[in-house]
Fold this sequence. Notes:
The complex is a heterodimer of chains A (144) and B (493). Chain A has 144 residues and is an alpha/beta fold. Chain A has one domain: D-Maltodextrin-Binding Protein, domain 2 (3-Layer(aba) Sandwich). In chain A, 45% of the residues lie in helices and 18% in strands. Residues 10-21 of chain A have low confidence and may be disordered. Chain B has 493 residues and is of the alpha+beta class. Chain B folds into three domains: 8-157, Beta-Lactamase (2-Layer Sandwich), CATH 3.30.450; 268-328; 335-488, Histidine kinase-like ATPase, C-terminal domain (Heat Shock Protein 90), CATH 3.30.565. Chain B has helices at 8-64, 67-78, 133-183, 202-289, 296-330, 344-358, 380-398, 455-466, and strands spanning 83-90, 93-99, 109-115, 123-131, 340-343, 366-370, 375-378, 407-415, 418-425, 470-476, 480-488. The interface between A and B is medium-sized, with 18 and 16 residues. The complex binds adenosine-5'-diphosphate and magnesium ion (MG). The site of adenosine-5'-diphosphate (ADP) has 22 residues of chain B, from helix 7 and helix 8.
Amino acid sequence: MRKLILFLFALIGLVAPLHAQNTRLFVVVNAKNPIASLSEKEAVNLFLGRSKTFANGEYALPLDHATSSAVRKRFYYDLTGKPISEINAYWARLFFSGQGTPPRIVPDNEAMLLIIRNNPGAIGYFDYEPTGRQLKVVLTLDSR
Amino acid sequence: MTMHFRTLQALLSALVGGTALLLAVVASLFVYSAQYRQSAKESGEMVQSLVSTVERSAAVAVFAGNVEIATDVVSGLLSNEVVASATLKSNSGILAQRRRAEARAPVSLYRQVIRSPFQGDEPIGVLEIGSNADWVAERARRSALELVAWSFGLICLSALISLQTIRHLLSRHLTRAAQQLDEIEPGSSARVQLPQSLRPTEVGGLISKLNQLLDRIALNLETERRLRAGVEESARELQATQLELMRSEKMAALGSLVEGVAHQLGEPIGNSLSVVGTLAESTQAISKRAHDEIKRPELDAFLADVACGTDFVLRNVQRVSEFLHNFKQVAVEIRSEKPQRFELRNIVGEVLAAHQDSCESAAPAVVGDIAGGIELVSFPEPLKVAVGNLIENAMVHGLAGRQTGSVRVRGWRVDERSVRITVCDDGCGITAANLPRIFEPFFTTRFGTGGSGLGLYVVRNVVENVLGGAVHAESEDGKGTTITLDLPVQIGD
Ligand SMILES: Nc1ncnc2c1ncn2[C@@H]1O[C@H](COP(=O)(O)OP(=O)(O)O)[C@@H](O)[C@H]1O
Ligand SMILES: [Mg+2]
């Protein structure tokens, strides 16, 4: 019986982090970036092209996941509360005006991690908390 | 200012037209102001709906600080006539601004706060839209004009229809009735025609009243005609009776004249005849004796007879001659001579003097009391005859056999055109029975003792027929008599 209860606990302990990984999103920058944290508003401004720089004046390079990826959909929904279609429409509008550039799209998490490690202005997001010395999580988004 | 209209229709047209115009003007003012308000309200709603359509784009433009989209938004707004100006501002400054070149100051300014499309309700900018005052006014004017044109047209149309109806129902019939009335002779049996359809209307009432009036007029005229005929008839009858009366009166007068004349002349002439007959016999007898010898006593007796007889005959013939003199005066008439101008006092004075000469000094005095300065244009001789006769009557009848008493002849002017002469005595007077008869010819109370009964008849004749006046007598038995002559100052007046 004790074994059974321990097993169940172990199972919960095993499943819980997995589950936690799925419900939260992490905005990540290069560890050399001087900012310690980012507000949601600052994140919106950076990812939707309103701000081109960080608070300290450093030039920002926002990175995005593939257009149709689930994580992208989740990210923008959690950040702005808007469906992805609206975000796409927004960019389309800006695109046709010939001004404004949407975040650069990277094929997968590895590529995004690579760019962040090598680029002090880069900023990206993940559906898990990436680890590594060159990386720094500046904002954690709870799912709405 | 008063205007005159020849026809009912013209009057009505003017009235209706004027009213329509006034109504249209008032309506246009009213509609314009209502429409202006309505239009301003609508413009607000239109701006509101425009705002909601561009809100997203504006939000994107402000969020991204995108001038191109901002410009797009404001020019898009300005392509609507209702918008006079549009400005899109972000928190840091104006992104885009456009204003209609010809626009006046906007009626009102709408401010729409632009909120971030991604960060909840955070305000990030403002969209300001001024609505187009000219457009609002123009729209109001247009719709007011349209409405007024319609209503004016409708009023005019209905006025035209009602005018036509009135003309059809009223003017036409009234004109025709007037025409017919014009042709109808008063009193004739013709009447104004009344169409069946009009019978219950006011026009029908008027026409039937007119016809009733014509009926009454005809009735009155007929009555009057009958009355006149009756009057004429009775006048004719009266005239005939009068003529008849006159004829019989004349005959009576002639009869009494003949009788009177025969009476007056018969006695003296009869007397004279018998005396002359006796004288002739005596003369014959004495002339037979003349061949023999005539004895002195016989001759003396004959001479005495002749003297007595001739004296008797002479007196009788004198009486006849006197009567004839009086009788001639009866026939006195207006002579061919012209009227003369004379002083009344002088003429009466002459009569009094002549009278004084002819009677004894013991007789009662005749006093003349004539106002001076009364000038008559008349016939003096007939006037003298009349006054003389009246004085004589007063002496002969009124004061007969009296030692005292007086006769007074008075004369004065009554007015501009007439004088009055009275001969007044305080003698015996005339009995009430005789008073109405004294002017009749041959009426006398002294028959056989010199009265011919022609004196007052002559007076009346002269006064009425020659002098153009009137005479009347007043008397009270025992207290005297007054005979009054009223004469015109100017003969023929
Ligand atoms: N002044 C008088 N006083 C009284 N009787 C008068 C007077 N005048 C006239 N009469 C009466 O009127 C009568 C008619 O008068 P008149 O015609 O002169 O006729 P005559 O004098 O011949 O009688 C007289 O007979 C007399 O009776
Ligand atoms: Mg006499």
